[in-house]
Amino acid sequence: MAEAHVHRVSLVDGQIRSQRIIKLHLTGSREFRLGRHYRSAEDALRGVPVDPADLILINARLPGMCGIECAHKLKKVLPKLPVVMFAKEVELPGFIRALLAGADGYFIVSGKAESLEQVLSNALAGWKPFPREIQKMLVGCLMHASLLPAVNGALTPTERKIMAYLVLGLSDKEIATLTGNAT
Fold first, then answer.
1. Domains, the chain
2. Distance between CA atoms of 142 and 71, rounded to whole angstroms?
3. Which of 85, 110, 122, 134 is most buried, by the most CB atoms less than 10 A from its CB?
4. Distance CA 46, CA 21 (A)
5. pLDDT digits (tens, 9 = 90+) for 101-122
6. How does pLDDT run across 119-144, given as a tens digit for each residue?
């Protein structure tokens, strides 16, 4: 019987508690093995291009440069490298920023080991997985946005798009970039 390929995962995380949780989650995995560990975005930007793993797992909150900016810069250098962001708690704006930066998945640290493995597997398969908590928040935002049908009918498509971005918690600068109005 052929042995399954074990994917090497690099970790970018400067927080001891989340490092321990991620390491514990991956210890029993048959599909994933923890490889290199970088404690900052700057270390990862120097090390990952030289020794890329099959996948990289980045804490959204890093000391110095934030994890989302790190993901964006790594995707510019290694566009095919699957990048999964993780955070300590559910935060819709952070999730959206991670996707806009090029993240291929999102995980909440308090989730189960099986959930992490599923997110990593889906990211490797080309999906953009994210946790149920985020799904619930998205549905809530979309329902909230559709509560004003009279106003929605009076808005142009661009205005509706901007309203949707506002409901999702994006900043003016991020909205301007997404709509092509950035200066």
1. 7-131 (3.40.50.2300), 146-179 (no CATH)
2. 27
3. 85
4. 25
5. 899 999 998 878 888 999 999 9
6. 999 999 988 877 777 777 776 676 56
